[in-house]
Design goal:
Layout (H helix, E strand, L loop, with lengths): L1 E6 L29 E6 L2 E5 L5 H8 L6 E3 L5 H4 L15 E6 L1 H10 L1 H4 L10 E6 L4 E3 L2 E8 L6 E8 L2 E7 L7 H7 L4 E5 L12 H10 L4 E5 L7 H7 L4 E3 L5 E3 L1
Parallel strand pairs: 3-4, 4-5, 5-6, 10-11, 11-12, 12-13
Antiparallel strand pairs: 1-2, 1-14, 2-3, 7-8, 8-9, 9-10
Bound molecules: zinc ion (3 copies).
């Protein structure tokens, strides 16, 4: 399985509009962060996790042409507002693309993009989402995917654990205030953990970077990449300050697992 970070930024992206801080003005490409999403290439297809407002630019940047399934973490704007751009990534014959999400996220999608879900839009070449409610672990593109419910403000939010050949390889938790007890055993000792590490200071609905480091230690993840990053985290200096085995993710980083 191959992971590509399409975006590693917080909800406003980095640089922020109108900000002159050192990170927003940095020449380091790793300080340019699109909104948070990843691509997961499994043995029999490609899964896009979240459709950010930057989806078009993200797809062009990595040469993405087709997606076999979309997996959504939750219904916040920074994770879904690029949904309309799926029209270029869906099945060219049927325009269909399967969307997997929890109940609240499917409800939000159907409200925000009512014209895609109300059954009236049948123009050729326009995306035709096929919603699937996730109620238990599922198989997609040759991978087994286990939902990881996490607290994150008022919306039902899930991370996901990805298994290949019956072996848990990777967990993705982009937006979370913590990894709660009922989810912890599912990521205990995971080879690779991608975790929300928003900023140095604490936040009501996200893990701060120090909290994320502590959480990653507690679950004994072997390799950790922090994501959903603000402009308070310069890449080079922050990376150098992290414990061994822990890293800041950056846009276009790929992991072969
Ligand atoms: Zn977010
Ligand atoms: Zn800034
Ligand atoms: Zn969120």
């Amino acid at each position: 399985m191959k992971i590509t970070f399409l975006g590693t930024g917080t909800s406003q992206g980095v640089p922020l509009i109108g900000c002159d801080c050192a990170v927003c003005c940095s020449d380091d490409p790793r300080d340019k962060r699109f909104r948070c999403s990843i691509l997961v290439e499994g043995p029999s297809g490609t899964i896009l996790v979240d459709t950010t407002p930057d989806l078009r630019s993200q797809a062009l940047r990595v040469g993405l042409k087709r997606v076999d399934a979309v997996l959504m973490t939750h219904g916040h704007a920074d994770h879904l507002m690029g949904f309309d751009d799926l029209r270029r990534l869906s099945d060219p014959k049927t325009d269909e693309i399967p969307i997997y999400a929890n109940g609240m996220t499917l409800d939000i999608l159907a409200r925000v993009f009512f014209y895609l879900f109300n059954g009236q839009n049948r123009y050729r070449g326009y995306v035709h989402p096929v919603p699937h409610l996730i109620e238990e672990p599922l198989e997609l593109c040759g991978l087994r995917i286990v939902p990881l419910p996490v607290p994150h403000g008022k919306v039902e939010t899930w991370g996901y654990r990805f298994e290949e050949g019956g072996v848990p390889k990777f967990a993705y938790i982009s937006d979370a205030k913590e990894i709660p007890q009922q989810t912890r055993h599912l990521v205990q000792g995971i080879p690779v953990l991608v975790l929300d590490g928003l900023r140095p200071e604490s936040h009501p609905t996200h893990l701060s970077l120090p909290e994320a480091v502590q959480t990653a230690r507690e679950v004994e993840a072997q390799e950790v990449y922090f994501t959903h990053l603000t402009h308070y985290l310069p890449h080079a200096a922050t990376e150098a300050s992290l414990p061994q085995g822990m890293h800041l993710a950056y846009d276009t980083l790929t992991l072969d697992l």
